[in-house]
């Protein structure tokens, strides 16, 4: 499964790994689905980090500050995570699955 390609791209280019089949889960509705509820938000594993950022910012504008402290912390961390170009394609699920200490 390839979303942002940061990990597999490095493995193919520098470690000469071979992946004969690659699947793009960003075309699977359930993988890019976002469901917003009054007390929670569900993010599909392939939702981009920038989309998560945008949704959290939207919630911050609508809710009291004491209900959005975690959202602000997450947005702050995303800023340091990578450049906007990477955040546009990288996904939360991909970073969890990679298990990289820098993710």
From TrEMBL:
<dbReference type="GO" id="GO:0005506">
    <property type="term" value="F:iron ion binding"/>
</dbReference>
<protein>
    <submittedName>
        <fullName>Xanthine dehydrogenase</fullName>
    </submittedName>
</protein>
<dbReference type="InterPro" id="IPR016166">
    <property type="entry name" value="FAD-bd_PCMH"/>
</dbReference>
<dbReference type="InterPro" id="IPR016208">
    <property type="entry name" value="Ald_Oxase/xanthine_DH-like"/>
</dbReference>
<dbReference type="GO" id="GO:0071949">
    <property type="term" value="F:FAD binding"/>
</dbReference>
<dbReference type="InterPro" id="IPR016167">
    <property type="entry name" value="FAD-bd_PCMH_sub1"/>
</dbReference>
<comment type="subunit">
    <text>Homodimer.</text>
</comment>
<dbReference type="InterPro" id="IPR002346">
    <property type="entry name" value="Mopterin_DH_FAD-bd"/>
</dbReference>
<feature type="domain" description="FAD-binding PCMH-type">
    <location>
        <begin position="1"/>
        <end position="103"/>
    </location>
</feature>
<dbReference type="Pfam" id="PF00941">
    <property type="entry name" value="FAD_binding_5"/>
</dbReference>
<keyword id="KW-0576">Peroxisome</keyword>
<dbReference type="InterPro" id="IPR036318">
    <property type="entry name" value="FAD-bd_PCMH-like_sf"/>
</dbReference>
<dbReference type="GO" id="GO:0016491">
    <property type="term" value="F:oxidoreductase activity"/>
</dbReference>
<dbReference type="GO" id="GO:0005777">
    <property type="term" value="C:peroxisome"/>
</dbReference>
<dbReference type="InterPro" id="IPR016169">
    <property type="entry name" value="FAD-bd_PCMH_sub2"/>
</dbReference>
């Amino acid at each position: 499964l390839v979303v942002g390609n940061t990990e597999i791209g490095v493995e193919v280019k520098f470690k000469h790994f071979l992946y004969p089949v690659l699947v793009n889960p960003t075309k699977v509705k359930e993988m890019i689905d976002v469901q917003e509820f009054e007390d929670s938000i569900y993010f599909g594993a392939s939702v981009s980090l920038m989309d998560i950022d945008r949704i959290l910012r939207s919630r911050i504008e609508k809710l009291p500050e004491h209900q959005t402290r975690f959202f602000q912390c997450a947005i702050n961390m995303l800023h340091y995570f990578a450049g906007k170009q990477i955040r546009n394609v990288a996904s939360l699920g991909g970073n969890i699955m990679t298990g990289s200490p820098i993710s």
